[in-house]
What we know:
Elements: H1 13-25, H2 28-34, E1 56-58, E2 76-77, H3 83-88, H4 92-108, E3 113-115, H5 138-153, E4 158-164, E5 177-179, H6 182-189, H7 191-200, E6 204-207, E7 211-212, E8 215-216, H8 221-231, E9 237-240, H9 248-254, H10 265-276, H11 282-302, H12 311-325, E10 327-331, E11 345-349, E12 367-368, H13 374-382, E13 387-391, H14 402-412, E14 417-423, H15 442-454, E15 458-463, E16 478-481, H16 489-497, E17 530-532, H17 541-546, E18 564-571, E19 575-577, E20 582-590, E21 596-606, E22 617-626, E23 631-638, H18 640-643, E24 645-647, E25 652-654, E26 658-665, E27 673-680, H19 695-700, H20 705-715, H21 724-728, H22 732-750, H23 755-760, H24 767-776
Parallel strand pairs: 1-3, 2-12, 3-4, 4-6, 5-7, 5-17, 6-9, 11-13, 11-14, 14-15, 15-16, 19-27
Antiparallel strand pairs: 7-8, 10-16, 18-20, 20-23, 21-22, 21-26, 24-25, 26-27
Helix pairs in contact: 1-11, 2-10, 4-5, 4-12, 5-7, 12-16, 13-16, 14-15
Amino acid sequence: MIIPESSATQHPTDYASKAKALVGEMTLEEKALLISGDGWWRTHAIDRLQIPSVCMTDGPHGLRKVEGGGLSTSVPATCFPTASALASSWDADLIHQVGVALAEESQANDVQILLGPGVNMKRSPLGGRNFEYLSEDPLLAGKMAVAYIKGVQSRGVGTSLKHYAVNNQEFERMTTSSNLDERTLHEIYLPAFEIAVREAQPWSVMAAYNLVNGVPATENILLLQKILRAQWGFRGFVVSDWGAVNDHINGVNAGLNLEMPGSAAYHRSRIIEGVGTGQIPPQVLDEVVASLLAVVLEAKDRHRPGTTFDLAQHDALARKAAGESLVLLKNEGKLLPLEIGKTKTIAVIGAFSKIPRYQGAGSSQVNPTRVSTPYDELVRMVGNDAVIRYAAGYTEEGTTADQLVDEARQQAKGADVALVFAGLPDSYESEGFDRSSLDLPAGHNRLIEAVSDIQPNVAVVLMNGSAVTMPWANKVRAIVEAWLGGQAGGGAVADVLTGKVNPSGKLSETFPARLEDTPSFPDFPGRSKEANYGEGLFIGYRYYDARKITPLFPFGFGLSYTAFAYSDLRLSAPMIKDTDAVTVEVRVKNTGQVAGKEVVQLYVHEQRAKLARPEKELKAFAKVALQPGEEKAITFRLEHRDFAFYDVSSHDWSVNAGKFDILVGASSRNLALKQTIEVEVTRSAYPRLTRHSQLKEFADHPKGKAFHLQLVEAFGLGNPYEQTEELAKLTPEEAATKRKADMAVKAFLDDMPVYKVCRFSEGSFTEEMLEEILKQVQ
Length: 778
Ligand code: BGC
């Protein structure tokens, strides 16, 4: 049975009111039972009230429905490319299709909620779970998550957006506090969650293991109530990451709806006791139960027992997704695609070509329905047109030996081309620990160098879930980043190498030249239970831009077998109010010989930022397919938030009046087109004036400026601001002396907190007068 798309993607009010009514019929024991899971993967059923049990499984890039005891065996399911690969497609439609397929497999396996996607930022390329996360950029991660969630939920299966929030290292992940400032939290670590919640309403959000500024994420009122529900309007339920509950009473009071896995009577009795002693107000528990129940009821209604899915079709989709995600990083002299027919001898070097690494380890590990290998697929696609030689080159752990290297050199010598497969073995990259280095195994590096010494035409194909260094990059002619491409990744690699698919992926994360260049070096991972985010806003390309560091390959970079030309960047207006939107149009043309797809990227740069701001930030993108010679116009829309920064004094988004550059191009370091727009500020972008505001803040404030001179004069040092008439009465020498003195007085007064005026004015300016002014400027 094919499941039709249904318009409802989030429980409408009738589930909410049905849930509320049911809560009225539940006993305290039943409520306490429901909010802690039934074992590892289910919620409790309450037969008396016909409340069904729902089943949750991982996620994110395939179904991992655990079977039997333990956690190592799961039902066969399509293993799609992992998140770092999928995000490199920059293709929302494609990810939506993957979401639909994941939902079909969930329905077929009686799974109601899929535990994904993961939208945590890649603070360091060493993060052990980076392969499971989408990007270092909040907008890209957020938009890809929206596509995923909408895809899954359009077929009646819920998602769980994870790991909320600021979960960026694996080292001591259950006990470490991520310590960061408010602006960094809002500008970098929350927006991907915010975009996903506002635009796609996931049925659930998973609260992370870590603490945020000392408060466990599962007990965090700021994150769970004030931000998630009150500001973003989240309507689903919050589930703890598996084992993340610390104090369940605090959790319930903060708005945690479900503890997973269940802790049986352990927490149930505490909850019952907590209500009895008044530690949990009964209405708080009722709300927590009702939000969970609303999703349970919807999940039941939208479940389609007896659904089947087309295994071959899903495998084909996995291949397509991997092909779209692959990033061509180098292609000197157009070594790729291989010209089948002309290329007579191909040396395939590296054991990953026969035993590919295609997914990561940990809770996301899928039991694939089949696995394609690059070697087999190449043999099949090349047929009798070329001879394919092979050498393993290294062991499973990535070590090598003279004999393995010699064998590889023999096979590569005299071949028309050598394809060297390398990457990170399982033991280098997994949930549960961080990477200790950015390097490939020494054996892989040695192999690549040795083969390049005797073979001029080397293409390296990499299989890894996150950035790696490439000391041999200048010695090889082509580099293909194939990521952890899922079960059909081998086929996708063959598609790209032979030109059946024109690569169109672009890096969803920066590839630094060396570990020492990375933003959180040398403080990653945070140890001693504290992870201090000293680099603040500056992660990923924001950091490399600010420090003017040239990365190995920049964010957003990727080549194609064709070429694209950008032109005619136009804005709908040269100046807008911050309450308006501007439309940006650009033309992109395929100037090469083959059809291809380009990821068009738009970044915004504030010309004279008052606060430290990233040099530029990604604000829009689109993937466009073009036939040779074809040209298309792409339009983007920018509004308030695209120019705004998070203002910690008003705890809200604010725009500084002024000029912003709109930069459009093919990667974060190749933005050929620029237009400038002026933004006029109409909404109050000014901090609220308080007794601690400085005199200069009064001068800048639309209401405060009326009182500025009065405050300055009350200070008793005269008026140091330029008074042309007075200066004209003085000799040039006297005027110069006065100007110099005024300059220092002005600097002194500008920074003065206004409450100090009362103290300096010797009684002429009173506390009452200040209170009156403060009232008037609100
Ligand atoms: C992981 C989650 C996962 C959960 C259930 C946890 O250890 O952090 O991502 O969904 O286990 O397997």
